[in-house]
Every structure is written in structure tokens, then in C-alpha cells.
Amino acid sequence: MSPTDGPFLYDNVSYQPSRSRKKRKKHAPSIEDSAQSRLDRTIAELSSSAWLAACTTLLKQGLSAFGKRPSEILCLGLGSPCASAEARRQLCFLVHLRDVLQICPQNVLACDPIFSDGDVSCLRQCDVVQLTDNKMGKYRLDKPSIAFMPHCTATLYENLLRENWSTACLSNIVVIGNCLAEYVDATPVRKLQTEYPCIARLVPYLVVHVFPAYAPHAATFFNTAVQFAIMENLPAENDSFWDLPEASLVHADDGEIR
Ligand SMILES: C[S@@+](CC[C@H](N)C(=O)[O-])C[C@H]1O[C@@H](n2cnc3c(N)ncnc32)[C@H](O)[C@@H]1O
């Protein structure tokens, strides 16, 4: 991938004041700060962090309570790894998840309508498959799966849950993303009932393991948690809990949910 594929980011690179054209030629940097080297630096930073070790322990504890071994990761709303250091760190975390859970690379799928050609090359370098079928979050998860959705909008979570609104499907899903309870706390009751009924109904049944803050870059994994429902606690299949109101319409001509 060429470094011109995405905006050049300066994280971990010291700023050099601009020089005259002549001098610039003479002192042109010999090592290009390519997308690959940015990824490599991010992987090195994350993998040496105590934070990653702590999250891995939390994840394993959570999965042991979940009781199934995920064989797939669906990643939604990653953002642009070329243009955003947040997205790049989250991509490295996704790769870590895959490796630590020994999930086959072909079962690690990522969809975000903002992916550029450079982002797609980045995904390819990381052995992550780009999912081109944008279903606005409405993916049916028929096998035990992790939905990795860092900082997605409530609508995207809602669409995923609605598409999987049965004990059979919900029993397959571990969400690694925003604490869903925060959406409930932040949204007026009426809006919750009409626009986010699945989130509102599911939250009381969720087991939640909140990741510690990632101190060097707190925004990247802010409010991120491993979450899944305890099936035995969910209402019986004939309970009104499972009857949802009509889905509210989301207009997104460009496939992007805001
Ligand atoms: C708030 S941003 C989060 C970006 C990044 N994960 C972060 O934490 O900085 C939400 C992301 O959801 C993505 N998104 C919007 N609609 C989507 C869709 N239909 N499927 C997947 N991702 C979508 C947006 O493009 C955006 O990158």
C-alpha cells in the first residue's frame, strides 16, 4: 500500500518544521512511514501493554461463563484504520482477539461503509475479510460469534439484536463494544421503547465485563465491555418480551448509520 492512500498521521512521529524544496530533497527521509509501519507500531504498543493482558483475562473469564467457543467475529463500525489511530488500535485488537481465540481468519469479517481502498488493503494485510454486503447491522448470527462494534451507534446495535431476536440466536452472541446500559441511561424512555426496544429489554439480562481504561489513549476503548445474555434468565419464548414493535425507519442512502 502506498503511504498516499490515506491521510498521513503523525502519531509517534516527531514533527519536523518544513524546509526549502532544495533541502527537503536532500534530506528526504529514507524510511517511509507506510501504513504497514503504522500498524506495526500499534501492534507493538498494544501487545506490550498490561492493558491487553488484563482485557484478555477478562475476555477469557467472560467466555467461560458464556459457555460456547466463538468461531466467528463480525466487526462493525471500525472506522478507517488509515485515517484514524483509534480505528487502527481497534483493528489491532481485533487481530489479537482472533489470535487469542484461535478463530480462522476467513471467519473474521469487517464492514464499515467508510472503508477506503487503503483501509481495505490494511484489512488484507491483517488477514481480516472485508464484508461488502452492508446490511446496516442486520446480520443473522447462527453460530457462536463475537460482535466487535467499538463505539457504534445505538441503531447499529439495535439492528443486530433485532435480527437475532430469539433465544437461539442471542445465545450465540457476545458483544464487545459500548456498554449497552449506557444507551439506556442516556435515552428518554419513550425513544427507547420505540427506537431501541431490543437494547432496552436485553440490558437487564446482560452479564457485563467492562474493560479497564487504556491509559495511553483513553478514547480508543472508552466504555468498552464484553457482554452476553444469560439464557436461563431470559423470559420464556411465549412471553411478550419477544414481541417487538415495528422497526423504526432509518434513512441512510449511503448505507451509513449516523
Ligand atoms: C462513532 S464511529 C466509530 C469509529 C471507531 N470505531 C472509533 O471508535 O473511533 C461509528 C462507525 O460506524 C460506522 N457505520 C455507520 N453505518 C454503518 C453500517 N451500516 N455498517 C457498519 N458500520 C457502520 C461509521 O462509518 C463509523 O466508522
Automatic annotation (TrEMBL):
Transmembrane segments: none annotated. Residues 19-28 have a biased composition (Basic residues). InterPro entries: SRR1-like (IPR012942), SRR1L (IPR040044). It comes from the Eukaryota. Residues 1-34 are annotated as: Disordered. GO terms for cellular component: cytoplasm; nucleus. Residues 67-227 form the SRR1-like domain. Belongs to the SRR1 family. This is SRR1-like domain-containing protein. It comes from Rickenella mellea.
